[in-house]
Structures are given as C-alpha cells and as structure tokens.
DNA sequence: AAGCAGAGCAACCGCGGGTGG
DNA sequence: GCCACCCGCGGTTGCTCTGCT
C-alpha cells in the first residue's frame, strides 16, 4: 500500500499504515485483544505495535476479527429483519446490527446500499419513497415471509426447527404509527395501499448465529458473485425485479401482485394465520411474535 | 485474451456525543 | 463552563473480483 511499514522496534514516530490489513497485523491485533480485551483503541494500537490508528484497529476488530462475526449471504430471515428494522429506525445501522447477532453495521449498511438501493434505482424509485416502501411492504416482505415459512416447512432442511415464530394477522394501524401518519404514503391513490404494516418476526435466540442459507439455490435470478461460493437470497433478483419494475411503472393499482396466500395450519407448530390477502381486502397487516410488538 | 463496466465489500473520513481534567 | 481526547456512528471512497463484449 501507500503507507510505509516500519518495525515496531523503531523508536521514531512511524508512518501510519492505511489500506487493507495484513495477516500479520490481524494476528497482532487479535492476539492483543485476546490478552487485554477491547477498548482504548489508540493505546491498544501503540501497545500492540500496530502502525494503525485506534479507529482503524477498532473497525478491523469489530467488522472482521471479532470471534462471533458472521459472514456470508444474508438469509431471508435476516433480510426481512433488516427491512423491518429499517422501517422502524432508518439508517441506524448499528442499532439494526444489534438485532442481528454476528452481523456488523457495516455489513448491513453495505447490504442496504448494494442490494436495496440498487433495486430502487432499477425501479426508478427513490429508496426512501413511499412508492418503494409500499413495494417492499406489500411484495418483498411478504415474499420473504413466504420463503421463511417454506424453508421451515421443509422436513429435510436441517434448520427447520429453528424457523421463526412468525404470525401474521390483520390489524388496524396503530394511531400513533409514524408510517401511518406519513403524508403521501398512498401513492397509488388506493386506500388499501395505505395499510400500515406492522411487521414483527421473532427469532429463536440461536437462530441468527447459524448459517441457514439453505433453500435459496433455486431462486430465479439468483446471482453469484465474489468467490462464487454463496448464492444470493436476494428477493429482488431476476424475474422479481421485472415484476416490481412493472409495479413502479404502472402504479400498484394496475399490477396484480402475486397473492401470497399460504395455507393455514400448514407450517410449524407455532404457525398461525398468515396471509397478505389483507393487502387486497383493504385491511392492515401485522406480524405478531411471541416476544414483542412493533407498531408503526 | 484483453479491456471494460458493474457489483460487492473493506476501509477511511468527518462529525457528534460522552467523559474527564 | 471550557477544552481536549476518545469512541462510535453514518456516509463515502476505492480496491478487487466477476462477467460481458
């Protein structure tokens, strides 16, 4: 890189290194943190003999070296949670990351920017527009729920028992709901599109720690990138993007979204009623979980 | 095979909040 | 109350890899 590496024994103030971390630097940092713990990053950088800023050390540790950091594609559950929490908190990446064990704010932020914003751009929608939010609420999120449910129902899938307890029921919007109160939400001039979706997904405590990307292999338009070892679970890929493009171009009223009616009583033992038919029938949706309630 | 463009991700930067002197 | 320092967060940049032509 452009910076100069100097031996730690050199007494002079050395050039600070920038750019990608080397294996040696990683080992130094990880070893020092293991021995002395996190925090006081500037002091740590000096004591460990790293020619890095404290900020850089902290970032490297949190985003890469931390033992519990989890890598790989986001599962449908994680995608749904990201969408859900972004509705609630906006670009509060670190806050969102707290709800996804093993995932970093940087990773989530990158996901949002590379996947979600990319597709918003493809649809000629602003990612923060009500139009795009409606598409996410009424198309993407139900589809994710469907996939989560489908995965949990597959008897041969190893993680079937870890499916989230997802309930969905029709519910009127909470009066104090920020989303319900947002002006311009009814872009399609349809009152049914004004439904304020309260989504809520409960994950078993161990759920997000495991790599449960199974079941995504045959999703149409799934793309491979990077080392090619992972297959995307991106719900916006391929034909789905085309559908959404039509939705944005024509307006929700003129597009028949798939009816993600899933059979009742067909899921795991925790399954209740879940259907997006509320969208078509003019009622609001709510996903309930056994743990807490999210109201918009 | 080479060049190009786009996607994804790691890392950096600037700012604001918190804390201690 | 003020200042300096540290930490954490969100936004941005730039490098690397892949696929396409």
UniProtKB/TrEMBL annotation:
Superkingdom, taxonomy of origin: Eukaryota
Name of protein: Uncharacterized protein
The organism of origin for this protein: Avena sativa (Oat)
Lineage: Eukaryota, Viridiplantae, Streptophyta, Embryophyta, Tracheophyta
């Amino acid at each position: 890189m452009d910076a100069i590496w100097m031996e730690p024994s050199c007494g002079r103030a050395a050039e600070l290194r920038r750019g990608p971390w080397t294996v040696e630097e990683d080992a130094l940092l990880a070893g020092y943190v293991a021995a002395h713990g996190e925090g006081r990053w500037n002091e740590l950088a000096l004591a460990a003999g790293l020619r890095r800023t404290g900020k850089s050390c902290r970032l490297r540790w949190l985003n890469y070296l931390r033992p519990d950091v989890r890598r790989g594609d986001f599962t449908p559950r994680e995608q749904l949670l990201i969408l859900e929490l972004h509705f609630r908190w906006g670009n509060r990446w670190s806050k969102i990351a707290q709800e996804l064990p093993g995932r970093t704010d940087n990773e989530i932020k990158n996901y949002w920017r590379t996947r979600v914003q990319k597709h918003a751009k493809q649809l000629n929608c602003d990612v923060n527009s009500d139009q795009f939010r409606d598409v996410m609420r009424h198309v993407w999120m139900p589809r994710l729920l469907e996939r989560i449910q489908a995965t949990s129902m597959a008897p041969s899938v190893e993680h079937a028992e870890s499916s989230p307890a997802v309930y969905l029921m029709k519910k009127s919007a909470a009066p104090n709901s920020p989303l319900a109160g947002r002006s311009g939400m009814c872009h399609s001039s349809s009152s049914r599109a004004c439904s304020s979706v309260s989504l809520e997904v409960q994950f078993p405590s161990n759920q997000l720690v495991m790599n449960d990307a199974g079941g995504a292999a045959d999703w149409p338009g799934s793309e491979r990138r990077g080392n090619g070892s992972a297959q995307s679970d991106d719900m916006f890929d391929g034909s789905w993007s085309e559908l959404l493009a039509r939705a944005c171009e024509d307006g929700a009223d003129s597009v028949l979204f798939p009816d993600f009616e899933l059979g009742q009583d067909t899921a795991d033992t925790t399954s209740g009623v879940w259907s997006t038919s509320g969208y078509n029938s003019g009622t609001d949706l709510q996903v309930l979980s056994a743990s807490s309630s999210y109201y918009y």
